[in-house]
Amino acid sequence: MNKLFFTVAFVSLLALSIGTIHAQSEQQIRSDLQKKLGSNAKIKSVSPSPIAGVYEVLVGNEVFYTDTNSKYLIQGDIIEIATGKNLTEQKQADLNRIKWSELNPANALKAVRGNGSRQLAVFSDPNCGYCKRLDKSLQQLDNVTIYTYLIPILSPDSAQKSKQIWCSADPQKTYIDWMINGIAPSGKSDCTTPLDKNMAFAKTYGITGTPTIFFTDGSRFPGAAQITDIEKKLSSLKQ
Predict the structure, then answer these.
(1) What are phi and psi of 115, to 5 degrees?
(2) Tell me: domain 100-236, CATH 3.40.30.10, correct?
(3) What is the pLDDT of residue 218?
(4) At what angle do helices 156-167 and 171-179 cross, to 10 degrees?
(5) 38-95: CATH architecture
């Protein structure tokens, strides 16, 4: 019994020691890499990758890899051959995910078609050509609620148009009239708007381009995604 107890205790101590060594190693890699990359690169974490001797490095919301000596910074995908899974892509998707509950519908334009059961959110700039293309495509969706968050990031005129859209008598109609029909917004632009809140949200979650789409599971589609891909994603979610 004493021998068994000693063996179990030794194995437990060994496992704890190995874990401590790994933690120290990861911390050292992070420290060394941070010095080499400079203060502009904000390293969030360093952790073992599925490949022995290779570590996953999170810089902001980007995934990189490095060796145990921090000599190389590797940019690329790790694909598990047995399953065909792109592990880097999965990690990147998780990093870009948000909590749907953190979106405030009061700060968005709202369009409801059909029963409105399926939901998505779009961050849009009124001077964004790809946003206009996306808005035209979204007209094909039924039984959907679309929340549009205006973030004027392209030009000073984007801010002016966003304010005019939000301050109009029917902001959603004014938005669609401009984005799809080319009818420029006019009228006052001095009402209280949520634009600053939307910009702050975009900055917090790394939304640097428009359009950016979010779904109720928190996943995002950057750019003017194909309507078939959007429909497929919506169909996969339990609304």
Answers:
(1) -85, -5
(2) yes
(3) 93
(4) 140
(5) Roll (3.10)
